[in-house]
Amino acid sequence: MKMLIIYTYPNHSSLNYAFLQNVIKGSKKNANIKELQVLDLYAEGFNPLLVFNEQKRRRDMHTDPNIEKYRTQITWANKIVFIYPIWWGRPPAMLLGYIDQLFASNFAYKDKKGLFPEGLLKGKSVICISTMKGPTHYPFLWLNNAHKILMKRALFNFVGIKKVKFFEFGNMEGPKGKQMKKLEKIYHYFKKLDR
Protein backbone atom coordinates (compact mmCIF):
# COMPACT_ATOMS: atom_id res chain seq x y z
CA MET A 1 0.00 0.00 0.00
CA LYS A 2 1.14 3.53 -0.84
CA MET A 3 -0.61 6.00 1.44
CA LEU A 4 -1.01 9.76 1.09
CA ILE A 5 -2.23 11.66 4.16
CA ILE A 6 -3.72 15.09 3.52
CA TYR A 7 -3.84 17.03 6.79
CA THR A 8 -5.89 20.23 6.97
CA TYR A 9 -5.68 22.08 10.27
CA PRO A 10 -3.65 25.23 11.06
CA ASN A 11 -2.48 24.24 14.55
CA HIS A 12 0.11 21.57 15.39
CA SER A 13 -0.87 21.65 19.07
CA SER A 14 -4.34 20.37 18.29
CA LEU A 15 -6.37 17.20 18.54
CA ASN A 16 -6.39 16.97 14.74
CA TYR A 17 -2.59 16.94 14.79
CA ALA A 18 -2.71 14.17 17.41
CA PHE A 19 -4.91 12.17 15.01
CA LEU A 20 -2.32 12.75 12.28
CA GLN A 21 0.46 11.50 14.56
CA ASN A 22 -1.55 8.38 15.47
CA VAL A 23 -2.25 7.63 11.81
CA ILE A 24 1.48 7.89 11.10
CA LYS A 25 2.48 5.79 14.15
CA GLY A 26 -0.04 3.06 13.35
CA SER A 27 0.93 3.05 9.66
CA LYS A 28 4.64 2.70 10.47
CA LYS A 29 3.85 -0.46 12.47
CA ASN A 30 1.89 -1.91 9.54
CA ALA A 31 3.87 -4.08 7.12
CA ASN A 32 1.12 -3.66 4.49
CA ILE A 33 1.86 0.06 4.19
CA LYS A 34 5.03 0.18 2.12
CA GLU A 35 5.30 3.94 1.56
CA LEU A 36 3.79 6.98 3.28
CA GLN A 37 3.64 10.66 2.34
CA VAL A 38 2.11 13.51 4.36
CA LEU A 39 0.78 16.71 2.84
CA ASP A 40 0.09 19.39 5.47
CA LEU A 41 -1.86 21.98 3.47
CA TYR A 42 -1.36 24.84 5.95
CA ALA A 43 2.34 24.17 6.54
CA GLU A 44 2.77 23.82 2.77
CA GLY A 45 1.22 27.25 2.25
CA PHE A 46 -1.19 25.75 -0.29
CA ASN A 47 -3.17 28.47 -2.08
CA PRO A 48 -6.83 27.37 -2.14
CA LEU A 49 -7.98 30.27 -4.36
CA LEU A 50 -9.11 29.51 -7.88
CA VAL A 51 -7.97 32.00 -10.49
CA PHE A 52 -9.40 31.97 -14.01
CA ASN A 53 -8.47 34.57 -16.62
CA GLU A 54 -7.17 34.79 -20.19
CA GLN A 55 -3.97 32.93 -19.27
CA LYS A 56 -5.49 30.40 -16.84
CA ARG A 57 -8.65 28.62 -17.90
CA ARG A 58 -10.73 26.12 -15.97
CA ARG A 59 -10.52 23.50 -18.71
CA ASP A 60 -6.70 23.56 -18.41
CA MET A 61 -6.51 22.88 -14.65
CA HIS A 62 -5.38 19.29 -15.25
CA THR A 63 -2.13 20.62 -16.72
CA ASP A 64 -1.50 23.54 -14.32
CA PRO A 65 2.25 23.36 -13.52
CA ASN A 66 1.68 25.01 -10.10
CA ILE A 67 -0.12 21.92 -8.81
CA GLU A 68 1.77 19.21 -10.71
CA LYS A 69 3.43 17.87 -7.54
CA TYR A 70 0.01 17.40 -5.91
CA ARG A 71 -1.34 15.55 -8.96
CA THR A 72 1.74 13.32 -8.81
CA GLN A 73 0.98 12.52 -5.14
CA ILE A 74 -2.61 11.53 -5.91
CA THR A 75 -1.52 9.42 -8.89
CA TRP A 76 1.15 7.71 -6.75
CA ALA A 77 -1.15 6.81 -3.82
CA ASN A 78 -3.57 3.93 -3.75
CA LYS A 79 -4.95 4.98 -0.36
CA ILE A 80 -5.67 8.62 0.49
CA VAL A 81 -6.36 9.69 4.09
CA PHE A 82 -7.94 13.06 4.81
CA ILE A 83 -7.73 14.52 8.35
CA TYR A 84 -9.74 17.69 8.95
CA PRO A 85 -12.31 19.37 11.21
CA ILE A 86 -15.93 19.81 10.24
CA TRP A 87 -16.73 23.52 10.35
CA TRP A 88 -20.28 24.66 9.55
CA GLY A 89 -21.19 21.13 8.47
CA ARG A 90 -18.41 20.77 5.92
CA PRO A 91 -14.60 20.53 5.56
CA PRO A 92 -12.50 23.71 5.84
CA ALA A 93 -12.22 26.08 2.87
CA MET A 94 -8.51 25.17 2.58
CA LEU A 95 -9.37 21.53 1.86
CA LEU A 96 -12.24 22.44 -0.46
CA GLY A 97 -9.86 24.70 -2.41
CA TYR A 98 -7.44 21.79 -2.74
CA ILE A 99 -10.27 19.57 -3.98
CA ASP A 100 -11.49 22.23 -6.45
CA GLN A 101 -8.05 22.42 -8.04
CA LEU A 102 -6.87 18.82 -7.87
CA PHE A 103 -10.00 16.85 -8.74
CA ALA A 104 -10.22 18.50 -12.15
CA SER A 105 -11.60 17.34 -15.47
CA ASN A 106 -9.16 15.19 -17.50
CA PHE A 107 -7.24 14.31 -14.34
CA ALA A 108 -9.84 13.00 -11.86
CA TYR A 109 -12.70 12.45 -14.30
CA LYS A 110 -13.45 12.64 -18.00
CA ASP A 111 -16.66 13.88 -19.54
CA LYS A 112 -18.43 11.44 -21.84
CA LYS A 113 -21.84 11.01 -23.36
CA GLY A 114 -24.49 10.23 -20.81
CA LEU A 115 -25.42 11.44 -17.36
CA PHE A 116 -22.19 10.71 -15.48
CA PRO A 117 -18.53 11.15 -16.39
CA GLU A 118 -15.88 8.45 -16.31
CA GLY A 119 -13.98 8.46 -13.02
CA LEU A 120 -10.24 8.37 -13.65
CA LEU A 121 -9.17 7.57 -10.06
CA LYS A 122 -10.60 4.04 -9.98
CA GLY A 123 -8.86 1.52 -7.75
CA LYS A 124 -7.97 4.04 -5.06
CA SER A 125 -9.62 4.15 -1.64
CA VAL A 126 -10.18 6.95 0.85
CA ILE A 127 -10.42 7.31 4.62
CA CYS A 128 -11.83 10.54 6.08
CA ILE A 129 -11.06 11.35 9.72
CA SER A 130 -12.97 14.39 10.91
CA THR A 131 -13.56 16.11 14.22
CA MET A 132 -16.31 18.45 15.32
CA LYS A 133 -17.40 20.39 18.37
CA GLY A 134 -21.01 19.22 18.13
CA PRO A 135 -22.38 15.73 18.81
CA THR A 136 -21.27 12.87 16.57
CA HIS A 137 -24.75 12.41 15.08
CA TYR A 138 -25.30 16.13 14.42
CA PRO A 139 -24.44 15.95 10.66
CA PHE A 140 -26.77 12.98 10.21
CA LEU A 141 -29.73 14.20 12.27
CA TRP A 142 -29.66 17.94 11.51
CA LEU A 143 -27.89 18.21 8.17
CA ASN A 144 -29.25 15.13 6.38
CA ASN A 145 -25.79 13.57 6.29
CA ALA A 146 -24.51 16.46 4.14
CA HIS A 147 -20.83 15.90 5.01
CA LYS A 148 -20.79 12.26 3.89
CA ILE A 149 -22.90 12.98 0.81
CA LEU A 150 -20.55 15.80 -0.18
CA MET A 151 -17.40 13.75 0.28
CA LYS A 152 -18.53 10.30 -0.86
CA ARG A 153 -21.23 10.80 -3.45
CA ALA A 154 -20.50 14.26 -4.87
CA LEU A 155 -16.70 13.91 -4.90
CA PHE A 156 -15.14 10.47 -4.50
CA ASN A 157 -17.75 8.34 -6.31
CA PHE A 158 -17.82 10.95 -9.10
CA VAL A 159 -14.08 10.45 -9.76
CA GLY A 160 -14.26 6.64 -9.54
CA ILE A 161 -13.32 6.07 -5.88
CA LYS A 162 -15.91 3.66 -4.50
CA LYS A 163 -14.27 2.53 -1.25
CA VAL A 164 -14.66 5.37 1.29
CA LYS A 165 -14.54 4.99 5.09
CA PHE A 166 -15.48 7.71 7.57
CA PHE A 167 -14.47 8.35 11.15
CA GLU A 168 -16.57 11.30 12.38
CA PHE A 169 -15.69 12.19 15.96
CA GLY A 170 -18.05 14.53 17.80
CA ASN A 171 -17.92 16.34 21.16
CA MET A 172 -14.19 16.88 20.64
CA GLU A 173 -13.99 20.10 22.65
CA GLY A 174 -15.44 18.68 25.85
CA PRO A 175 -14.76 15.95 28.41
CA LYS A 176 -17.50 13.71 26.94
CA GLY A 177 -15.48 13.39 23.75
CA LYS A 178 -13.28 10.52 25.02
CA GLN A 179 -10.43 11.88 22.93
CA MET A 180 -7.79 9.41 24.13
CA LYS A 181 -10.04 6.44 23.34
CA LYS A 182 -10.64 7.76 19.82
CA LEU A 183 -6.94 8.43 19.26
CA GLU A 184 -6.22 4.82 20.27
CA LYS A 185 -8.94 3.60 17.92
CA ILE A 186 -7.28 5.38 14.98
CA TYR A 187 -3.82 4.10 15.93
CA HIS A 188 -5.03 0.47 16.05
CA TYR A 189 -7.07 0.82 12.86
CA PHE A 190 -4.03 1.92 10.84
CA LYS A 191 -1.75 -0.60 12.55
CA LYS A 192 -4.00 -3.42 11.30
CA LEU A 193 -5.20 -1.97 7.98
CA ASP A 194 -4.73 -4.60 5.28
CA ARG A 195 -5.95 -2.90 2.08
Structure report:
It contains seven helices and seven strands, in the order βαβααβαβββααβα. The strands form two sheets. The chain has a five-stranded parallel sheet with strand order 2-1-3-6-7, sandwiched between helices. Helix 1 links the parallel strand 1 and strand 2 (about 35-40). Helices cover about 35% and strands about 20% of the residues. Helix 1 (about 15-30) packs parallel to helix 7. The longest helix is centred in the first third of the chain and has 14 residues, at about 15-30. The chain is of the alpha/beta class. The model has no long low-confidence stretch (mean pLDDT about 90).
Question: What topology does this entry show?
Answer:
Layout: E1 2-7, H1 15-28, E2 35-40, H2 41-44, H3 68-76, E3 79-85, H4 93-102, E4 109-110, E5 118-119, E6 125-131, H5 138-142, H6 146-156, E7 163-169, H7 179-192
Parallel strand pairs: 1-2, 1-3, 3-6, 6-7
Antiparallel strand pairs: 4-5
Helix pairs in contact: 1-7
Characteristic key phrases:
195 residues, alpha/beta, 5-stranded parallel β-sheet, two-stranded antiparallel sheet, 34% helix, 19% strand
Summarize the structure.
By secondary structure, the chain is of the alpha/beta class. It contains seven helices and seven strands. It has a five-stranded parallel sheet, sandwiched between helices.
Oligomeric nature of the chains: single chain
User: Mind telling me the C-alpha Rg?
Assistant: 17 Å
Largest sheet: 5 strands, parallel
Low-confidence stretches: none
